[in-house]
Structures are given as structure tokens and as C-alpha cells.
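Researcher: Quick one. two chains, 580 residues in total.
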Amino acid sequence: MLVMGPKAENIRYYHTLKILEEKCRGRMRCMRACPTQAIRVRQGKAHVLEELCIDCGECINACPEGAMVPLTDTVEQTSKFKCRVAIPSPVLYSQFSVDIHPPEIIAGLKKLGFDYVWDVSLVCEAISEALRLYLEEHKGPWPVISSFCPAVIRFIQVKYPGLTEHIIPLEVPRELAAKEMKLELSEKLNFPLEEIGAVYLTSCPAKAVSIRQPAEKEKSWFDGSISIADIYNPLLSAIMSLGEEEYKDDLDGLSAIGMGWKVMGGTCSFLEPGSCVAVSGIVELTKILDDIEKSKLREVKYVEASFCLEGCIGGPLAVENAYVARVKTIRLENRYGKQPRIQKEKVQKLYREGHYFLERRIQPRPIKPLHPDIAKAIALMKEKEKIHNLLPRVDCGLCGCPTCLAFAEDVVKGLLNISDCLYNSIRKERSR
Amino acid sequence: MSDDSLLDLEFEIIGGDFNQAGRVSTKLKSILKEIGFDAQVVRRVAISTYEAEINVVMYARRGVLRFKASPQKIVIIIEDEGQGIEDIEEAMKEGYSTATDEMREMGFGAGMGLPNIKRNSDQFEITSEVGKGTRLEVTIIAGDGSKS
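Model:
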């Protein structure tokens, strides 16, 4: 991928985003959409500042040329494994017309060549119980923030490093499902773990990254990820060609309420109402995190945070409109019932044994300061403010920076010259 | 210390303007993060300036927040023109508040402001004159010897 800016030090961050340079026309939509201001347009092409990118996928949505593409895998790439297992995000169940039900979708995936399809919704339900137990015992700091959205995690690591200790140290459903699957299948089939390939079917580019470089452990239990948008067409054809004898219309081994996790408010529905908030979308997320940082959110114990509007169903790699997907998820619950499918006692026992906990806590990943020496950084900050005051502060973006403040920063860092401000040059020209 | 490494900023806070309350704190927070101050130092500055801002908005006509950051320490001075505090000792108690019902309805006035600022600072000075206003000086050590 294209990266620029200060040379990366010891750590390199993976990103699952590729810019197709021949398609990029430098239209700056991505630059304006980027919530961490990680994109600059130079010489008419978009570039990503690696350390700032949190893989949220806003740029993928924003690009009118289709030049931003997620680097997910293909079905063929998984063929090296002896046993191929698809683990669909419950988002997948909400992507088809209402008369295509989860059992058909699962049968369709097998037809595409997966040996097994492993469900996440039951694990969602189990982790909801673990979450309830955790909140009962937790002593602070409050509020705790959900851990399931990797874009939120990376956003906090980068922009709110002081809040990483608020992130709940519970494992996320997808990873736990992949772990349980591998351990169970490896024993059942007598295959070594490395011969079982786990692929996540997802609406989320950030999850694809978190599989390549997890924030909370050495290695993900997954071996790859496939975008729902990519698999949608072949899967739909496979589903259409299913005979009636090829699936059974019951939710054996699945949990309808667990599927609700992927919709905004899904995790809160398992908890005592009145002490949790669900927030989605970058604008509201920023407000809430600002408030937590100021210790303003005193009455709230739990914050469910999704980067995408409406939750994972609003992910950039989803096919269905997020609001329609929400309705479809509700219909699934109505069809299959809201009764719990897990044994609480069993979950409670596993909880005590540490089964639901992350391998390690999420660490901050703060933005590189203006200068490693604070005294010099302060001097540069003053310089930056000075430059900013000379700028039009209309954030026109013609210089290729998303804001005048970002321009001032790039000048201070020596990447741009103050004369690169086109707005000021034009103004000067006109007043002549 | 050279003048170059001292950041000196000033902000005006308007009494009764709940819409704007918290803006200064958010701005300072992002500046400090960019300079590269320790995350917990930033957090303590964010909390104390926010509480101080809210106090001005709630109880004063106007106020000025002066912010000085150097590599060693951060000093925040908030001076307001307002009703002042009659009994500072009482006001420093957790849960003590003279907020009106209206303020409480808006979610403010839990009586935690001043003690919360004190808890998050390394040095805390308060003086007040009834009918005139209040002056707060908060110091947060940023370099070695800071509270963890």
C-alpha cells in the first residue's frame, strides 16, 4: 500500500486498505471523510498516513471512483487448508431478502466449498452473560467501553490513549468462536490446528486488520477474512440452487438474540436498562469519548460503542442498507424466538475459569508527538498556532490537507511550505 | 527555561452558556496530546479544566481561563466575576452544592466539581470573595515526580 510521512519506527501497522493509483483522481472525498485526518492528497493522488489510520473504512465508502479497496481475502485463497471453516458475522444473516433464512445461508456457504460453517451468535449470547457478570464485579474506572469494535479500539488507542483502561477486557465473539471451533474440530477430526483454516465473513475492514494484527494478543485465531460484499453474489447463486433437502429450517445451534449483537444497542439489551448507553457513528462516538475523558459520564456504567452507524450492520463491506438490515434482524428474532439458547451456569463456570477474557489488555498507541522532546514539541506547537493564524481557516482542502490546522502541522513538520496554501495565493493575486 | 518552551493561552468563558461549556477543555486536551504529554496528565487536565469551566458557566457572569504548559508542569488559573463562594471549606466537601433545581435537571451541580479538581491536581489554591468572584490555581506536575 501507499504510505508516507515520517519513517515508521520499530512497529509497522498493517492496514487492509489499498489505493488503486490508476483509479484515484484526487477528488479528496476520502480525505474529508477520514475521522483521524490520516489522508493527504499529493500530486493529485491520495496517500494514507500509516500511524493515524484506524481502518474504519470511511474512505472506502466515500470514494466515488472505487479507488479505495479493502485488502480482504478470496474464497480460493483458503484452499490451502485441509479443512476450511467459514465463520460468518451475524451481519450476513440480515443481508438477504426476508425469505432467505440463516439455515439456507449456512447451506449455501457449504456449497461454495467450506467444509464447516461455524456460528458466532451463540458465543455472542454467552459473552453477553460474561459481560453482565463483569459489570457486577467491576470496581471502576467507569464507564467500561465495549471491546468488540476494532475501529473503536484503534480510535481509542490513537486518539484517546488515556481511555484504554476503560475498555472491557472481555474477548470478542468472533475470536472466541474461532478458538472454540479450532479446538473442537481438531479433536473431533484428529487434525493438527494449523490444518484448519478459519475465515471470517465480515462487513468490516477493521476486523480484517484485527485478524492480521490483533491489538490484544499475539495472533488471531482466524487465518483470513472475506468481505460480505465480495461473497454476496456467488453465495446468493449457491443459495438459489439449493434443493429443499439440503437444509432444515430451524435454528439448531444458533441464537436469534445473539444475532442482535450486530445491531446498535444489541449488547445493551442483555443488561440492566438505565445504566448503559449505545453509541454509533464517528460524530457521536467522539462526543461520548470526550465526555468520558472529562469524567462527565458519571451515571453510565457501560458504553456500547460501534464505529459504524447502526452498528456492524452499517459496515462498509455490507450490502444491505443498515436500517433495513436492522429490521431484518428484528424479524429473525420474531421468527426464531427470543429465548436464551445458552446454559447460564455453564457460562458462569467458564467465566470463573477465565475463558471469556482477553489474553492481554489493550495498550495505548498514541499519535507520535510533534517532537520527542516536550520542550521542542511545545515550541513547535506555538509555531503551528502562529501558522494557523495566517491561514484562511476555511478548510477548503485545495492544498491536499483536510483542514487548515492539518496544513499548519504539515508545515511545522517540514512536509509543506506556507506558500502551498492556494487560497492565500489566490487572495493575494486578486488583491493586486 | 526559555520562553519557547512555555505555552501560554487564554480563553474566555461566558456565564450561563451551557452550550459552549467544555469547549476549552476539549481544545486543551487535543493540544496536550499533540505535544506528547503523558496520557494520564492529559486526562487530569481535561477533568480539572472541564469542572472549572462548568463552575464558571454555572455561578459566574464571565471568567478567564489562563493556561500555561511547560515540560515540567501545567498551571491553570481560572478567575471569574460572579457570586463567589461563602464557605470554601464547605464547598470543598464531596456532594456539597448550591446548584438550583434547574441546573440539576441539566445534569450539573452534583457537588463534585471542586473536590474533583483538587483530586486531579498536584497543587490546588482557591480564593474567593462573596459578590466579586473566585480564583482557582491548579498545578499539575507533568515531568518527573508526577502523581501516577
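Residues 1-10 of chain A have pLDDT under 50 and may be disordered.
Researcher: Thanks, that's what I needed.
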